[in-house]
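Example record

One chain of 245 residues, shown exactly as stored in the release files.
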Amino acid sequence: MDINGAVVLVTGASSGIGAATARAASRAGARVVLIARREERIQQLAKELGESVALAVPCDVTDRSQIEGAVQAAIERFGQIDVLVNNAGQGLQATVDAIDPDDFRAVLELNLLAPLVTTQAVLPHLRKRSAGAIVNVGSGIIWSTLPGSGAYSASKAALQKLSAIARAELADEGIAVSMMFPSITETEFLGRVRGNVEDARQMEAASGLLPQSPEGAADMILGLIRSGAEQADLVPEKFGGTLNS
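Predicted structure tokens for this chain:
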């Protein structure tokens, strides 16, 4: 679909891939709705992009009522929603015997249920236009078997399956559902990991992968919006992706 003139809602827009995606979409001519809990950051980003084309809505995406309120704010401001980028997420580093069930529930709420509920809130507006794009941000970690990553990998693997089925269900309505699989990216992700942060840092360092820029991931997300392709990744071939390295 054409991004120019579209209204693009991005969750987790306060930093990293989410903020980079909002900037890239704005440069492409989109109006953007910035969704995140950190109000000061998204307000600052909205000012940077131009408040006539950017709307900052503080929102905890694990709260259905807040999601519905954010979607309504977007409709009131711009009159439509054309694209949803489900980017908000969090890691969890712990071996299977040490996974805290409360941590796992929180990660599932954010990484899996929040994209579902946000999709459900946006879908009526996409259906009105018989067109739209939904991009869910996963992780290339699902193609590896790394000790300590079981809970996080499980949440992202479940998101991939949910996305694939949503794509099949919505294809005839003109709505494309796609998955983006980043590799290690230069963001604040590690600092917010639940469980053992030091083990997460060591696992990343031991991978030998060089962190990629969030701007590269954002460009890939915009490519999916334009093409409607099923998926794209920035993961090297030896780790299960398609990136030549």
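Notes: The chain has a mean pLDDT of 95.
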